Amino acid sequence: MLSPLWDRIKQLEALTSKQQVEIRKLKRDNDEMYATISNFDELIEILRASGLGSKRSSGRFSESDEDEDDNMIETEYMELSDLPGDAVENKPLLYEYEYFDDSEIFGIAPSSVIEAADSAGAAILAAMLGGQRRMLVDVRDAELTNNPEILAQFLELSILPVAAGLEGLNSERNRVKIVFPTVAQLLEYRKLSALAAPDVVALGTLNFGSLEDPDALIILVAPSPEDKEEFEMMMRILSPDNPEDTIEQPVVLLNYHMSGMKNMPEPVRSWEVIYHLRLLSVQYLAMAEGGEGEEMTESEIEDMFLEATSEREEALPEMPGSTSAVTSLGDDSYSEFEDLASDAAFVDFAEEQEKAGVVPGTTRAMVIRSYPRPWHVFVDTSPDEDADFEVAATFEEQPNQDEVNLAIVNCLQGSQEEDELVAKEMKEALEAGQLDNVADRLNRGLEGGGVWGRYVSCSLGG
């Protein structure tokens, strides 16, 4: 009697978890839609204030002008029909639209660890469908390392797509197994977990219940490299001395430690990295427009920058779980990163170099790989405003630090050149009197200067 009821409860719990993920995505899409509408309304107001006409020869017309637009199309049709000969075909005007969505090509930079977990879950499912048997998920985030609750949420969301697909299958292997390094971590996860479906998601440790027949996928939570005993135990499971003891099921090794996968021995090091997220803080120098510092050589500026960087590192408190300033995805950790600009040592250095025409700055970057997409470097081109991450570079293989550094510098340089071009065009429009009605509004944005010169140095943390 209780068995069907218990099965139904487990199904409802799994369904609820899936719906929560979908609701979160819908909320994000809704916020993006409202932001787009707000920006478009502001653009329309600027065009109307400048006296520019709103009549368009192509494109989609607003619903409020539907009748007027229909008349305009019909008029154009009649005028073309009156032309002699067959020079113009007697048919209505056609409008063509091109649709581009960079997020479908490059993916998006996650704004939270939860969004990163959604992407990791999609990558795990895609990799399994693609035939991958040994997979790595490498997420280096201070919040994930130090907060067991965030780690529990990340695990749940990352296994949810696979668990939902396995549920109800008439197969001997139809569940996901999460293997923790210690019993303490297992109990902590069980206390914080919202999923309570042992037939779909089972738990185990390295020395007990790490592998059983019903397991279709093994999620192995990597121990800290400092725990040599647990680390060696994990390697014995992954690379047993007896070939007959080799794990047959697909295995996902989840690393959530800031040290990364550099200490992993073979064959684990050669596994396919299906999801990677590494956060970087970027300190750079820029030549201020018209500053005396433009006569300095780049090597002199780099030496001066490195000296100031070492002074800041001594004065600034290190962020949790990191030996350098590594940004986290959460708002709280971002606020810690933003405190860098208000640090006394940094402010003194900034004021000193600004007088010489050299302006230091800070921003954020991410290195992301989500299977089957290639590797991408995202850079926040508006660090003083809301996060605006753009794709700086794409790599087929995992980029080294020099390649990441160069991609960030090129992205910052290109972003600034674009800002300078826009500022120049706006000034020319003002001088020509094209925007007299909105000159005051635009002048407020141009009077502050803010036009950066060329970027000459970039230092990464993380």
If you compute it from the alpha carbons, what radius of gyration comes out, rounded to the nearest whole angstrom? Answer: 28 Å
Largest sheet: 10 strands, mixed
CATH class of one domain: Alpha Beta
Uncertain ranges: 53-83, 85-91, 290-298, 301-328, 330-342, 445-457
CATH topology of one domain: Rossmann fold
- Mean of residue pLDDT values: 70
Kindly state the number of beta strands: 10
What is the subunit arrangement here? single chain
Hey, roughly how much beta strand do the residues contain? Answer: 15-25%
Topology as H/E string?
A: HHHHEHHEHEEHEEHHHEEEHHE
Structural class: alpha/beta
From the coordinates shown, what is the CATH architecture of one domain?
3-Layer(aba) Sandwich
Write structural notes for this entry.
Among the domains are: 106-270, 3-Layer(aba) Sandwich (Rossmann fold), CATH 3.40.50; 278-386 and 397-420 and 455-461, no CATH class. The protein is 45% helix and 18% strand. It contains 13 helices and 10 strands. The protein has helices spanning 2-49, 66-81, 102-106, 113-129, 142-146, 148-166, 183-192, 228-238, 298-315, 331-338, 344-355, 401-431, 439-446; strands at residues 134-140, 175-180, 201-205, 215-221, 251-255, 272-288, 358-370, 375-380, 389-395, 452-461. Strands 1, 2, 3, 4, 5, 6, 7, 8, 9 and 10 form a 10-stranded mixed beta sheet that branches. The radius of gyration is 28 Å and the shape is globular. Mean pLDDT is 70; it is low at 53-83, 85-91, 290-298, 301-328, 330-342 and 445-457. Residues 110-283 form the DUF1995 domain. InterPro entries: Chloroplast_ADK (IPR053021), DUF1995 (IPR018962). Pfam families: DUF1995.
